[in-house]
Amino acid sequence: MMETPVVETLTFHEIQRYSRHIILPEVGLEGQTKLKNAKVLLVGTGGLGSPIALYLAAAGVGTIGLIDFDVVDETNLQRQIIHSTDYVGKPKIDSATQRIKGINPYVNVVTYNQPLTAENALAVIEGYDIVCDGTDNYQTRYLVNDACVLLGIPNVYGSIFQFEGQASVFDPNKGPCYRCLYPNPPPLGLVPSCAEGGVFGILPGTIGTIQATEIIKLILNVGDPLIGRLLIYDALEMKFRELKVQKNPDCPICGNNPTIKGLIDYEAFCGITSVETDRITEDHLITPKEYAELRNSGFKHLLIDVRNPMEQQISKIEGSRLIPLRQLEDLIIKENIPKDFPIILHCKTGGRSARALIQLLDMGYTNVKHLVGGINSWIREIDKNQPLY
Amino acid sequence: MNEIEITLPTPLRIYTNNQKKVKIAAETVDDALKRLVETYPALQKHLFQGNELRSYVNIYINDTDVRHHPDGFRAHLEPQDTIFIIPSIAGGLK
Ligand SMILES: [Zn+2]
What we know:
The complex is a heterodimer.
Chain A: H1 12-17, H2 19-22, H3 28-37, E1 39-43, H4 49-59, E2 63-67, H5 92-103, E3 108-112, H6 121-125, E4 130-133, H7 138-151, E5 155-161, E6 164-170, H8 178-181, H9 194-197, H10 203-220, E7 229-234, E8 239-244, H11 266-269, H12 275-278, E9 285-286, H13 288-296, E10 302-305, H14 309-312, E11 321-322, H15 328-335, E12 343-346, H16 351-362, E13 368-371, H17 374-381
Parallel strand pairs in A: 1-2, 1-4, 2-3, 4-5, 9-13, 10-11, 10-12, 12-13
Antiparallel strand pairs in A: 5-6, 6-7, 7-8
Helix pairs in contact in A: 4-5, 4-10
Chain B: E1 3-7, E2 21-25, H1 29-39, H2 44-47, E3 48-49, E4 52-53, E5 57-61, E6 64-65, E7 82-87
Parallel strand pairs in B: 1-7
Antiparallel strand pairs in B: 1-2, 3-4, 5-6, 5-7
Bound molecules: zinc ion.
Zinc ion (ZN) binds at residues 176-177, 179-180, 248, 251, 253-254 of chain A.
């Protein structure tokens, strides 16, 4: 719940703090006052949310909302620069609030220690001037988009994968939305996540800073926003490309005859609760303890690690065959493994091995199991001498 | 026939022997994509569902989405044209 808007003017100390802004004709006292009265919601305080929150705080954005239910993990610190080592294990929103307040005590930080869901999204987002999407999953991306279109609020978009990033501004009143660009998410497993595919730590810094720039421009109403343009950044080539994004007249939410008039079930939309995963039963699961016993018994089987080669450099279960998920089908066909030969699949935490399991069931394999919790659980419970990631 | 360049996104390079850019001789976008998947058959199912381009993959000729080009997939290609394949990516938070 947001307070009713009262235009707040700048204090003497604030004028001094923001003087380098105020002397810019494009900002001035008027622009800086707009920044002070602006309310921006950041969905996620991770890789993208970190630089965005830091720069919005420094710039004097008056109200910054943070929604995140995650805790700081050591593996976040390679890129999530708002968090520090002292905060490992603590809520990200607490860590971020403390940093924002350290940079600028004049910022009002509103926190939501919960996931954004179809039930709470409209209530959380309503009252903010701009929403900034820095999440890592399709269901939240479509949820943020739909809520912003329904409420008429601009959504400043950014996304990253390995060495490449995308940024755009989806303003439902002035241009296309995320669904105009991508009507549907990819099926599960076809596009690897950052946790699976890795990410160049500085990449979210570049993309997040572009998002922060767009947010501040929108608040000040200066320059040309990234509306109707998708900026593509390639860090290895150090190249920016700009692609046109048009409003789709048939868009299900912002088109001429919208069919989506309220928030929907985003997990179902993104295929997360599909019948596919229902096909995995108790018989297809093996716990690290059960697997350790199986190994000790000398039982003949094939252990397939469906992760990527680089991940095996971090941790490995002795005797495993590396076949990355995306090559599984092709390689299994080549190898001519009997359909009833016992196969155990594993990945990092169990997501990819579940998808691999369904692929093998589809190919007619009858004796397949996957390791519950992946190699990370194996390391926690059985082989404590390897690093977790 | 014009030789044009196709730029592939990171997640699909695994299917093109890790090549980021592929040169293909083609008259139209349709031609270029057909030849691309003929050369790299593993790409087929990641780009197409039957004959339809998948809805989370966008194809651009230079800066224009083929779906919004007046000639669509029959759009004629010039030698300096580049085709970009841009799938949706979701990363950001974790
Ligand atoms: Zn739309």
